[in-house]
Amino acid sequence: MWDIDSQKPPKGRWSTPPFDPRFPNQNQTRNCYQNFLDYHRCVKNMNRRGKSTQPCEYYFRVFHSLCPMSWVQRWTEQIKAGTFAGKI
Q: Where is this region: Disordered (predicted)?
């Protein structure tokens, strides 16, 4: 789940993330961060329930489309180290 290779986007055609009215401005930093959190919360909840994490793929695609890879790698390392500031 926290492996860098597993966080690479799958092959295939991706569309641009749809408009999210919570983030109407040009700066999409908060949108990136929120979708990163939503993805990890979704995976955590689905694993806890013993269900497929397929519904979480939407968040994965959105944050991979919006976030710089350096941020994703840093946040992933912080999650592994237990120092990530977000609430997952």
A: 1-27
